[in-house]
Write the structure tokens for this entry.
Amino acid sequence: MNKFTKRNLLVFFKDKSAVFFSLLSVFIIIGLYMLFLGDVWVGAYQGLSGVRYMMDSWIMAGILAVSSVTTTMGAFGIMIEDKAKKISKDIYVAPLKRRSITGGYIISSFTIGIIMSFITFVIAEIYIIINGGSLLELNKIIKVLGLIVFSTFANMSMILFLVTFFRSSNAFASASTILGTLIGFLTGIYLPIGQLPDAIQWIIRIFPISHSASLMRQVMMEDAMSATFAAVPAEKIQEFKELMGVVYKFGETEVTPLFSIIYLLSAAIIFYVLAGINLSRKAK
């Protein structure tokens, strides 16, 4: 299984276009933020110091949640390509158990997701610093790296379940495009959750990836919000957090970080089980 995992890693990183397109959604969000969204939100809170730092941290936290999805989906493209090109037939006649082959795809996708998300985090911190922000403290960097690993593990389960339904590269590419387009809305990046209709807000709150974004924002925005809102009443800060998806509320109950972690873990288990059932059914 280790050699098969290594093979998948080499195939992915050798294909420069696959690497680029796995980060395409990230590049699009950064581009939109630089051209339009950044000025809109900075202008909305004009008069407060450190607004750019705070909003840069907000958008980059969301991007980290997005990258854990798009990069793993790009990595699972190897599995689809193997099916489409009938390479999987050669793989299955090799002295490897089916669960080892599946495990090789999963481990390689997980590894790729972590590597690419770590790279995204470095780019995010450089972007924040260039625009006048500050480097995260070491303990917060460790927290973010831990969240990246956890989010990649959890979000990959949904992608694995999704890709079990595809056998052609064209169908997979179409699904990747649709997901890449929607994910900015479903994580409350293009439009903050507080500006959306109630029905859409509920969809975002139950969308597991949104909880990854919320956890990232709570860590990455903590220092920036403390500086920017130093003289702002607590109720106004709470309104901002709810508007921007830093925290979520179900009714009058605020979602705690522990709940988000348990929710993501539960979703991961459910989707891994469903993906396993789907793969077993198709193997018969």
